[in-house]
Write a structure and sequence with these properties.
Radius of gyration of chain A: 32 Å
Strand order of the largest sheet of chain B: 16-17-20-24-23-22-21
Number of strands of chain A: 11
Shape of chain A: elongated
Strand order of the largest sheet of chain A: 1-8-10-11-2-3
Largest sheet of chain A: 6 strands, antiparallel
Shape of chain B: elongated
Strand content of chain B: 35-45%
Structural class of chain A: alpha+beta
Largest interface: A-B, 50 and 63 residues
Distance between the termini of chain B: 66 Å
Number of strands of chain B: 25
Radius of gyration of chain B: 26 Å
Structural class of chain B: alpha+beta
Strand content of chain A: 15-25%
Helix content of chain B: 10-25%
Number of helices of chain B: 6
Distance between the termini of chain A: 62 Å
Oligomer: heterodimer
């Protein structure tokens, strides 16, 4: 990176342009106006040997950035190479990623893929023989997403969600309830949950991506339903398994996996990012969600809990699959608890 | 009219006589009465007060354990002082305790033999007039006349029922008969002229044991007493008959046939809008052992709850039922320094006693225990059994035991689990 700058000369000076000898050679150049995050704003393809860039309206590429001079810089093609020439601009010009060895204060050779920083704007220079990345084949998710974003599928998933939410609030009501009350609470619940896909769609819209709201809604609600099913599964396992069973631990991992998949698909639908970045983003949101919940619970945990913590999950007899034990085995297992309690008492 | 006069005269003369006697008793016994104060070393101020009385010429003073309990558990933080009738104060040493009967012996320095209270050699008779002495609310020494009403009914560790005002601060003071002999020690009140005394025999035993074999370590002594008491209580519970009784006509529950476990019942049959019909029976030991103001032990609680759904789906019934059993707590108060946190486990259990019969019950059984930090070998345990084999009916069987050994806890749990079934 090198700064080409000369503050002694103001850029308002209307110095006549030092035009090159002859337009004998013609180069082809692609100039991309990009944001600081390297997002494409405009793309220009020019076939001429002299290109002027600046705020003035006589330039080949007119930029509106107030930190740029009316005649900020020019690019010239000669001897098979493009050179950059800064016209004594106020804020200077920086050529990023240049492999050039030319240390000339005013002229530098531009390579394919270089980024020119002028004022607060950036330009990326590409040549027509620039190597593009391989074509990405449609992933199998594409057909799934196509199916899920169908209005009927979206409607069905939301309706199913409302039904489940209604059932859950019915189960939790200790007094008698009527259908309309349940429907209102279930409906408001679904509105609340719709905030997530709507938010993701909004962000992708703001970041110049296709919002794809239906696809986001369909995917999110399908996963909300799956998460509830995993809750049910977890409950059935907690009901059936005894406390020293490994199944309980495994069943807590299912919702984490489901949440990760949901976030991954959200980002797959909404944003064009590399596969690695998508995994990192989905992982971080999952970690934030579950880690945050854990931290919250941990911070609320008193230093000493005088109440016993046990799993009291019980369900109707039809969910019972485990065989029952007899009292002797239960007492034998209880024996171990006394040892644990003794150990805990000795530790303090 | 004449009879009325006679009656009034008799009554009057009786009260005058009682007052005179109270005065005489008070005057004679005052030199051997003390206020016992627990002084917080750091602040130099008293943190609790009670009464005490000298029972030997060489300076042994009897009081309640609960008066000096803070010192017994944290000797580094406090010191014990007496204040005598002349207003003199000096430090005393704790020499022996009986946590079960709430008694303690402290020893003061004496230069010469001093007057002391004689412990009675026989029990009072019902209706006999007694005099309770003590220093209520730090107001000065007083004497309260009252009546002996026998031993408290249904108590595991005996207490005398005394009809007379006993107030806080009088704890540890003596109760004497007309012959000025000690028959009890003030210990508790239920308000409204109902007081409780520790029978003097307990003090006699403690004093004799002290003379024969003084304890070297108060904590070890307490530990041994707690261990022995729970053995006595648990063997009484385990060896007496467990009557099988119906609950709401649907379930069979055990009722332990000992007088000191008392049972109460309740149901919500009157509540028409309740979604679940519930009938509850609970039995408990009325007394417990005081170890410190935040640590009690020796309690026993047993509860049975029968529930029946009224117009509910199975899922909803079980959902509401789960809430009923998700917050069982300890039966006794204990803190971080006293006990560990609970360790729990659960499983699905069918007791062998009724397996295969029509009475068979399938329970989700939960067992929790925590250990005592200063009294090794003692635990609090909690058991919760929730039936899971009927769609619209449920039976919860639950108990907590405080301060029991592992062996007794497991024996009780096993017997309890086998004794609960459907009808």
């Amino acid at each position: 990176m090198e700064v080409i700058k000369d503050t002694e000369h103001g850029c308002t000076a209307t110095e006549p342009m030092t035009s090159n000898d002859l337009p004998s050679e013609q180069g082809e150049i692609i100039i991309e106006e990009i944001t600081r995050n390297h997002k494409l704003l405009h793309r220009h393809r020019l076939k001429q040997s002299e290109i002027s860039i600046g705020r003035g309206y006589h330039n080949d590429i007119i930029l509106t950035d107030p930190h740029i001079c009316p005649q900020h810089l020019s690019l010239s093609f000669s001897q098979g190479a493009w050179r950059l020439n800064d016209n004594n601009s106020v804020n200077g010009t920086v050529l990023e990623g240049s492999k050039s060895s030319n240390k000339d204060d005013h002229q530098q050779v531009i390579n394919d893929g270089d980024v020119i920083v002028l004022g607060k704007s950036q330009l990326r220079i590409l040549f027509s023989d620039h190597q593009v990345e391989d074509t990405i084949a449609f992933s199998p998710f594409e057909s799934l997403i196509d199916f899920i974003r169908h209005p009927i599928a979206v409607f069905i998933s939301i309706a199913l969600f409302i039904l489940i939410a209604g059932n859950i609030s019915y189960l939790n009501q200790p007094t008698e309830t009527n259908i309309s009350q349940l429907f209102v609470s279930a409906f408001s619940m679904s509105l609340l949950f719709a905030l997530w896909p709507a938010g993701v769609a909004l962000v992708s819209h703001l970041t110049k991506h296709d919002p794809r709201i239906l696809a986001q809604l369909g995917i999110s609600f399908s996963f909300f339903i799956l998460l509830w099913l995993s809750d049910l599964l977890e409950e059935i396992i907690a009901f059936n398994a005894s406390s020293n069973s490994l199944l309980g631990l495994i069943s807590t991992l299912v919702p984490i996996g489901l949440a990760f998949s949901l976030f991954w698909l959200n980002s797959y639908i909404g944003f064009h990012v590399s596969a690695k970045r998508r995994i990192v983003v989905a992982l971080s949101i999952t970690a934030l969600l579950f880690g945050g919940t854990y931290l919250l619970q941990y911070s609320k945990k008193p230093e000493f809990n005088p109440h016993p913590q046990y799993n009291a999950t019980i369900m109707a007899p039809r969910y019972l699959m485990a065989p029952s034990n007899n009292v002797e085995t239960f007492l034998k297992q209880s024996d171990v608890l006394f040892e644990q309690a003794n150990k805990a008492a000795q530790q303090d | 009219m004449k009879t009325l006069f006679t009656l009034v005269f008799i009554l009057l003369s009786h009260t005058i006589f009682a007052a005179e006697q109270a005065e005489k008793i008070f005057a004679q016994l005052t030199p051997s009465l003390y206020q016992i104060k627990l002084i917080d070393k750091a602040s130099g101020e008293k943190s609790s007060i009670g009464s005490g009385f000298q029972i030997s010429a060489d300076g042994i003073i009897a009081t309640n354990y609960h008066v000096i309990s803070s010192y017994a558990r944290h000797p580094e933080k406090y010191r014990i002082e007496y204040l005598d009738y002349q207003g003199k104060s000096a430090q005393v040493d704790l020499v022996s305790v009986d946590v079960i009967n709430d008694l303690a012996l402290v020893k003061r320095q004496v230069d010469h033999d001093m007057p002391y209270f004689i412990l009675s050699d026989k029990k009072p008779i019902k209706g006999e007039q007694l005099f309770a002495l003590g220093n209520p609310h730090d107001l000065g020494m007083i004497v309260v006349p009252g009546t002996y009403n026998g031993l408290k009914k249904e108590s595991f560790n005996e207490r005398i029922h005394f009809t007379g005002s006993i107030n806080s601060g009088m704890s540890g003071g003596p109760v004497v008969n007309k012959a000025e002999k000690v028959v009890g020690i003030n210990v508790a009140t239920s308000g409204n002229q109902i007081g409780f005394l520790v029978p003097h025999e307990k003090l006699v035993t403690l004093f004799t044991d002290y003379k024969n074999n003084p304890p070297t370590d108060i904590k070890q002594q307490m530990s041994a007493q707690l261990m022995a008491n729970q053995n006595k209580l648990m063997s009484a519970l385990l060896n007496n008959t467990w009557q099988s009784k119906e609950l709401a006509g649907k379930a069979m529950i055990p009722i332990i046939d000992v007088p000191f476990i008392r049972c109460w019942g309740d149901s919500n049959a009157d509540k028409k809008d309740a979604l679940i019909l519930a009938a509850i029976a609970n039995c408990s030991l009325d007394e417990n052992t005081y170890l410190s103001s935040h640590f009690f032990t020796g309690s026993v609680e047993i509860e049975f709850r029968y529930m029946q759904a009224k117009n509910l789906s199975d899922n909803k019934f079980y959902h509401l039922y789960q809430r009923q059993i998700s917050r069982a707590g300890a039966g006794n108060r204990a803190g971080k320094d006293d006990v560990t946190e609970y360790q729990c486990h659960h499983d699905i259990i069918t007791p062998a006693s009724t397996a295969g019969s029509s009475q068979e019950i399938k329970n989700k059984s939960i067992f929790c225990t925590r250990a005592y930090k200063e009294f090794p070998g003692l635990f609090d345990v909690l058991y919760l059994g929730a039936s899971i084999d009927k769609n619209q009916q449920a039976l919860v069987s639950h108990f907590t035991l405080a301060g029991v050994s592992k062996k007794n806890a497991l024996a009780f749990t096993g017997k309890f689990m086998e004794a609960v079934s459907w009808k």
